[in-house]
Write a structure and sequence with these properties.
four-stranded mixed β-sheet, 2 helices, 4 strands
Length: about 70
């Protein structure tokens, strides 16, 4: 799935069941695939969202340097 934030197409997956949502973030230089095994183990208990951080995996690299607030958005 793709969501555009601040003119950057963010690649993410959204799956699983449950009332609680768990967002998994990969380490620097990684992508969604790094966190998928963890999400797969938890999907019966939680909604799982995993995203490729800007500049990694299927997510575009921002044209400007992002601040902590940009990442939080």
């Amino acid at each position: 799935m793709i969501k555009n934030i601040k003119d950057v197409d963010i690649n993410y997956v959204d799956y699983g069941e449950g009332k609680k949502t768990l967002v998994l973030l990969h380490g620097w230089g990684q992508n969604i695939d790094m966190m998928r095994p963890i999400g797969d183990q938890l999907q019966k208990h939680c909604r799982i969202i995993i995203l490729d951080l800007p500049g990694f995996g299927g997510t575009d690299e921002p044209s400007d340097v992002w601040t902590m607030y940009d990442y939080a958005e």
